[in-house]
Each structure stands twice: as structure tokens, then as C-alpha cells.
Amino acid sequence: MTTGNTVSLGRRLWTMLIALGFVGQLAWTVENMYLNVFVYDTISGDPDVIAAMVAASAVAATVATMTIGALSDRLGRRRAFIAGGYIVWGLSTAAFGLISVDAVAAVAPVADAVVVAAVSVIVLDCVMSFLGSGANDAAFQAWVTDVTRTENRGRVESVLAVMPLMAMLVVFGGFDWMTRDGQWSMFFLVIGLIIAAAGVVAWVFVRDRPVERHAGGYLGALVHGLRPAAVRENPGLYLALSAWCVWGISTQVFLPYLIIYLERYLNIEGYALVLAVVLTGASAVSVLAGRFIDRVGKARFLLPAAAVYAAGLLLMPLARSTVPVMAAGLVLMSGFMLVLAPVGALVRDFTPPGRAGQVQGLRMVFAILVPMIVGPWLGAAVIKGADERYEDLGVLKHVPTPAIFLAAAAVLVLIVPPVLALARRDARHGEAVR
């Protein structure tokens, strides 16, 4: 069904897009933000441990997305990978509640309990990331490409782009009290059960769409997108992925340390309220921008969006109390979302027919693997270079400083060349992709 210039998706599809998108981001909020806090508060205050965990999980997530994405293309099935994947993803998330320094010391009293606990969390994080990326980043995201069209992807991406913020808002508002009370086991259990329940719902309501098959074996399909010929055949796709990569590195410089920064550097105890206001406002901006992105053109929209994001990064170091932090954070996260929606839609638009799963693997390399290896290590280096510390039970811990936002802004400058190339390409093709 078509309404005006927009291809209607229908209520059932929208419900599944929103439900699975939201629950997936709920899990990634725990993995990307709260797992860092869990390690920092209960195991080790060394930012290198967090950076190592983030990097290792990014590798696992990328391997999962590339292998399962290509496999789902070959089989022409997404539903089984989504449903089964969400269920085991939830169970692995709940398992984090079993790890603690005290538990390790009780089981292996002769070992260095802190080191063993840190390694255990990193290993489990890799397992969880593999399962989650196979279900969400590979199968679900490929399914989204299957069921959407160029005419409605700006709107769909603007809604999906809100899901990380809404997930953060729900976690901060509904479950943050558990972490502040030290009830980590309950926290991971509740989140894990929600994720597993989404898998059951997906099995009932998700329906596969026909997928165009390509000749050749599975291994050929697995590495197809990494070949120089694929880059030459799809320049728009790789320009969009390059822009996404720069944006991703910029976000990962500060995002893993954001809650710690608010709580430990700015001493804002009510950071959940700050984040609630910021995330609600940024979500509204993203949803309202959805139709505008499709009308104006995704490529043309990117540079102004990046400018808003850069302005937010530069405002954050100037904000030192609750209200200014809310204002600066609103600009920052609005820009964050305004970049993510069009760049994600462009990647879907430039996806070759029948290769949606394979492109999700490429997306993981450009948008997750490289950013989550480079960004957190850069952020950790900035934090350690500032050498701001506080003492917790006799242990000195590094504290993130405003320099992480300035470093993120410096990285973001590199987004200009691929964005300008996309805009020029868009102009030459007479806005062929919108």
C-alpha cells in the first residue's frame, strides 16, 4: 500500500520493527554502558580493562554478523536466527550476574581473583556479543532491509535510531536503582529475561521475505564485500560506511565512560534524570526529522547533522552543573541521532539485492569493530593522560575528564570528505537515492 510518496509498512511490521529494535538496543545498552560500570565498580577501575573488553566484544560481534549474515542470505531465512538468537542472547546476559570477585575467590582461592573475574567478564561478553550480533546485527537488520524500501527508509531509520536512546531511558528510569544498590545479579537477570521473551515473540510474528540468491559458495559470499571489486562496484555503499566509521569512532571515545564522567567527575548524583531529559528530547528530534530526511535527501542532510553533533561535543566541556549539562547533552544526542538515521538509511539504499546479510557484516566492520577498538582506547589514553583520580576503598581510580569530548570532536572532522563525496554523487545522480 502506498500513501503519497511513502510506502506503508503496515501495523504488524511496524510493531515488530519497534519491539525487536527496542529490545535489541536494551541489551546493547547494558553491554555498552552498564557492563562498563559493573566492571568499574565491582572488579577493576583501570580504563584499559574496559577498553580491552569493548575491543574483544567488537571482534566477536563482527565475526558473528559476517558469518550469520552471509548464512541467512544463503538460506533465505531470517526468522529462525532472530528468534533463537534473542533467546540465547537473553540467557547469556543473565549469566553476568554469576560473576564477582568474591565468587571467583571462593572457587579459586589461590588465583588472583580480580584478574580471573576480569577475564571471565571479557570472555562472557564475547559470547554474549556473538549471540546478540548474530540475532540483531545480522538477522534482524537484514530483515529490516528486506521489508523496507528506498521511499520509507529515512522514516524507518529515524525510528530505529531512537531505539538506543529509548532503551537507555528505560534502563536508567526502570532498572538503574538496582545497580546503584549493588543488585547486579537481579539487574542482569531481569534484562536477560526480557531479551529471551522477545525471541519467543519473534518466532510467532516475524515472517521471512523472499531473498534473491547469488551463485557461488558460502565462503565466497562471506568475503565478497571485502574484495576490491565490490568496492569499485558499490562506491556509494563504502562512502556511507566510511562516514559511519568516523562517526562511530567519535562516539566510542566518550560513550563507554559517559556515566562514570557524570557521576565521578561532575558529581551529578541524579544523572539518570539528566539522561532522561536528554534522551527524551533527542528521541523527539529524531522522529520529527524522519520524513524531512526522506524529502531533503539523506546525503544532503548528513553534513548539517554532523555540525549539530560537533556543536554538542564542544558544548559538553563547558557544562559543569545539571541544567547546562542537560542543554549541552540535548544538542549532543540530537546531533548523534541526526547523523545515525541518514547514514543508516544510505547503507540500506546502497545494499546490492540479495546481499543484505553480507552488508550487515560490512556494517559491523565499519560501524562497530573499528570504532569499538579505536575509540575506547583513544578515550582511555585521554583519560590516563589527564591523570584525574579519586580514591575508592584505598584504590586510586582514573576519572574521565571533559577532554574526551574534545577528542571525539577532533575525530569527527574526518567525516567531512566521505560526506561531501556522497553529496556530490547524490547531485550527479539527480537525487536518485532518497
Low-confidence stretches: 1-6
Q: Total strand count, please?
A: 4
Number of helices: 18
Principal-axes shape call: globular
Average of pLDDT: 84
Residues in helix, %: over 70%
| Pattern of helices and strands | EEHHHHHHHHHHHHHHHHEEHH
Q: Approximately how much beta-strand content do the residues carry?
A: under 5%
Q: Give the spatial strand order of the biggest sheet.
A: 1-2
Note the main sheet: 2 strands, antiparallel
N-to-C span: 19 Å
User: What class, by secondary structure content?
Assistant: mainly alpha
What is the gyration radius calculated from CA atoms? 21 Å
If you had to describe this structure to a student in words, what would you say it looks like?
The chain is mainly α. 77% of the residues lie in helices and 3% in strands. The strands form two sheets. The chain has a two-stranded antiparallel sheet with strand order 1-2. Strands 3-4 form a two-stranded antiparallel sheet. Strand 1 (2-3) and strand 2 (6-7) form a beta hairpin. The chain is globular, with a radius of gyration of 21 Å.
What key phrases describe this protein's structure?
disordered N terminus; 77% helix; two-stranded antiparallel sheet; 434 residues
Task: Give the structure's gist in a few sentences.
The protein has 434 residues and is mostly helical. 77% of the residues lie in helices and 3% in strands.
